[in-house]
User: What shape does this take?
Amino acid sequence: MIKQHLFRFLSLKGISSLLRLQKKNTLTVLSLHRISHDRDYFWNPITPETFKKLLQYVVKHYSVISFADISQLKKNHSLSKPCLILSFDDGYYDFYEHALPLLIKYNLPSNHNIVNDCATYNQTIWTQRLNTIFNYCKDQNICISFFVQGKTISFESFNGNWIKFYLVMYNLLLKIPKTERLDILAKKEQEYSINAVWKMMNWEQIIECSKSGVEIGCHTRTHDVLSTINDVDILHKEIIQSAIEIEEKINKKVKILALPNGKGNEKIEEIIANSEIRYVLYTGDKINSFPYKNPGNINSIYRINIVEESFAEMILRIELFHTKIRKYVYV
Assistant: This one.
């Protein structure tokens, strides 16, 4: 509560406006996922009401563009406002249900990066499965433990801190191969009779999004952690073949790749270099220099993660307040 009052006070004092003045010749890219009334303690979707307020804010203070607009702005960058891109990942159905109508209403472009197997088979992404397990155990007051690479990690060791326990498990699972990671999740789902099924957009809905001004990008075939894959053929399927399949579905070129969990390496970069992808999206909670000097090259784009929180804090996060003071204090 004190934290919320602090952010509201800072917002009322115009801190967000002062921070935004420092964004001349920069590109802000927001990393968004679900727009829904569903609640998730560990990765909370933005409610449609908050998303509407967010759109009203960015319309007022930014030039909202697409990645396709960048090549033109490189030639004639004379906008009076800093540039911003609304970038979504994963392909949840609630984007089609709640976000798309608002984007159309405000006539705003956006980017949505699709996981092929989610669109084709309604696959549930492993991170969502992990969240479902954690939410269930927290709600049921279950002292859950995981056996990972020869060690047991138990909630008992975290003094009741669910977020800390979750982050430790999440980061451990990021480092292990897909088969081992999915086996760990499947065993817990079976143990607690959890059915982690979430509705994703199908190809017909994705095509409709594309026709409605949504710039479709690739988020790989299965949303695996690419940095854990050593087989070049599998990486090629995850990156190149998945992008080609999306192109065939929407009848447009795909030049955007959002790396799952923001994880890449030199081998992945080599594969991307031999593709038609021009924008590789990472996490990092920072902004990008703009306009770019080398339009023919691959551009690494950093995004600011946005989830449901008080609107005052969300705005300050967009304006990099958290990033700037993180070296001094945890927020």
In short: The longest strand covers residues 83-90. The domain at 2-123+202-325 is CATH 3.20.20.370 (TIM Barrel).
